[in-house]
């Protein structure tokens, strides 16, 4: 692991070999990785429930980093970042905003997947000057009651995973058909490509805190999404078992300057299953 002052290695072209760096934000040390050409507005990635740095799909990151400066980090209490995970999405968003500003960026583009999408919305609403463009994938809106079912959905998947000796995402992210099983196998294989300098696994405290935050968001007062004036891209699979695809449609309807992409025959991990289509769509959106 290198410190925050280490320069970006111009020769680093793949997520597999990108070094892990650290940055002190107040009394907490955050870990992060960055790659791709330097730009005035980097793309910051916000990840899903239980995810650490090594859970970003290398094809997604490498595809984006071929044209954009990409930054991914472990938020408070996640992976190798210090502290404990807070119990609300609002607190997670405050930590993310502090990390971005401490890293020295006055404005960024945000890509949030699943729980990360909820955090991205909160960052945008509370720090509108910080966000230029917003990408929300596999995520829902505050007050979308279906989110309260997340512990049951996750619990069932973890039981299936234990009985079959598979990763829970095999059941949570992809359809249970031929195309979905193939996509799940390919995705999970890609996550194992990085063999050195891997992140610490998620802790039990982090899992429980994230579930509490998701439940609180599902039961909370809905945000006024009309206040998100940034250009926004919403994407999901057409059969999301974790966060109903209908919530993606609601996001696109309620955010004034939003466009929606729904990928066929795919679920929560639709942007990973269809990464060959999603990456060009994101790059076009960011450049438009």
Automatic annotation (TrEMBL):
Residues 42-274 form the AB hydrolase-1 domain. Keywords: Hydrolase. Transmembrane segments: none annotated. InterPro entries: AB_hydrolase_1, AB_hydrolase_fold, AB_hydrolase_sf. GO terms for molecular function: hydrolase activity. It comes from the Bacteria. This is Alpha/beta hydrolase.
């Amino acid at each position: 692991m290198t410190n925050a002052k280490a320069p970006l290695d111009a020769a680093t072209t793949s997520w597999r070999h990108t070094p892990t760096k650290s940055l002190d934000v107040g009394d907490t040390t955050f870990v992060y990785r960055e790659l791709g050409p330097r730009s005035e507005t980097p793309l910051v990635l916000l990840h899903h429930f239980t995810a650490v740095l090594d859970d970003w799909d290398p094809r997604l990151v490498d595809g984006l980093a071929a044209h954009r400066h990409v930054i991914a980090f472990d938020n408070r209490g996640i992976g190798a970042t210090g502290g404990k995970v807070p119990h609300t999405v609002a607190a997670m968003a405050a930590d993310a905003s502090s990390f971005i500003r401490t890293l020295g960026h006055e404005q960024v583009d945000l890509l949030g997947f699943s729980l990360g999408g909820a955090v991205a919305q909160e960052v945008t609403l509370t720090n509108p000057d910080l966000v230029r463009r917003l990408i929300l994938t596999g995520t829902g809106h505050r007050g979308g009651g279906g989110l309260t079912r997340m512990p049951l959905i996750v619990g069932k998947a973890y039981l299936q995973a234990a009985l079959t000796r598979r990763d829970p995402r095999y059941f949570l992210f992809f359809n249970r058909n031929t195309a979905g099983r193939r996509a799940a196998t390919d995705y999970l294989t890609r996550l194992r490509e990085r063999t050195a300098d891997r992140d610490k696994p998620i802790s039990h405290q982090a899992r429980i805190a994230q579930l509490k935050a998701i439940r609180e968001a599902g039961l909370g007062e809905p945000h006024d999404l009309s206040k998100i004036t940034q250009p926004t891209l919403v994407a999901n699979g057409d059969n999301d078992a974790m966060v109903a695809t209908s919530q993606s449609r609601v996001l696109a309807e309620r955010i004034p300057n939003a466009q929606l992409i729904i990928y066929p025959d795919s679920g929560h991990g639709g942007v990973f299953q269809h990464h060959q289509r999603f990456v060009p769509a994101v790059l076009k959106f960011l450049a438009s």
